[in-house]
Design brief:
Residues 24-192 form the Peptidase S1 domain. Residues 1-15 form the signal peptide. Keywords: Disulfide bond, Hydrolase, Protease, Serine protease, Signal. This protein has a 6-stranded antiparallel beta barrel with strand order 2-3-4-7-6-5. The model is unreliable at 1-20 (pLDDT under 50). Strand 2 (38-42) and strand 3 form a beta hairpin. 9% of the residues lie in helices and 27% in strands. The protein is built from 2 helices and 9 strands. The longest helix is centred in the first third of the chain and has 10 residues, at 5-14. The radius of gyration is 16 Å and the shape is globular. It has one domain (5-174): Trypsin-like serine proteases (Thrombin, subunit H, Beta Barrel), CATH 2.40.10.10. The protein is mostly beta strands.
């Protein structure tokens, strides 16, 4: 698996200056266990996703910060207890110190798990990238975000979408004055 895929999750969070961008429009139900690093952040309900980067750390978006988080690993259908999930409380939550809630600059956080995740067929890690992805790189976006282009339709099953990294120029043209040097865009200009 391409280590740059971890950037797709972070990219969706970093280049999302509008509430409308938590969407996975035009995606498909992920094959079960096909995204074993995907986690659900829960505080009595699913509210954000993240990626397991080693047995004890998760990366997520800074705008997903809550003081208490339960990390759910091995999830596919977030409304069904499928039997192989691991529910681990956050021991420490570190949002980027320069996170800006208005501009979403530095929209990233780390979550330290209170115990190590058990790595198996349903739960695995993904490596952090060593360089930014090139324009046009195909990325896998996954999560339980809104699948409706208008209105709201939040799926129970994990959704996937294959989408390209956009050029910085196209990204900035789509979000004039909103994109910083810490952001990049993944997706399609016509939606998705």
């Amino acid at each position: 698996m391409n280590p740059l895929l971890i950037l797709t999750f972070v990219a969706a969070a970093l280049a999302a200056p509008f509430d409308d961008d938590d969407k996975i429009v035009g995606g498909y139900n992920c094959e079960e266990n096909s995204v074993p690093y995907q986690v659900s952040l829960n505080s009595g309900y699913h509210f954000c996703g993240g990626s397991l980067i080693n047995e004890q750390w998760v990366v997520s978006a800074g705008h997903c910060y809550k003081s208490r988080i339960q990390v759910r690993l091995g999830e596919h259908n977030i409304e069904v207890l499928e039997g192989n999930e691991q529910f681990i409380n956050a021991a420490k939550i570190i949002r980027h110190p320069q996170y800006d809630r208005k501009t979403l600059n530095n929209d990233i956080m780390l979550i330290k798990l209170s115990s190590r995740a058990v790595i198996n067929a349903r739960v695995s890690t993904i490596s952090l990238p060593t360089a930014p992805p090139a324009t046009g790189t195909k990325c896998l976006i996954s999560g339980w975000g809104n699948t409706a282009s208008s209105g709201a339709d939040y799926p129970d099953e994990l959704q996937c979408l294959d989408a390209p990294v956009l050029s910085q120029a196209k990204c900035e043209a789509s979000y004039p004055g909103k994109i910083t040097s810490n952001m990049f865009c993944v997706g399609f200009l016509e939606g998705g």
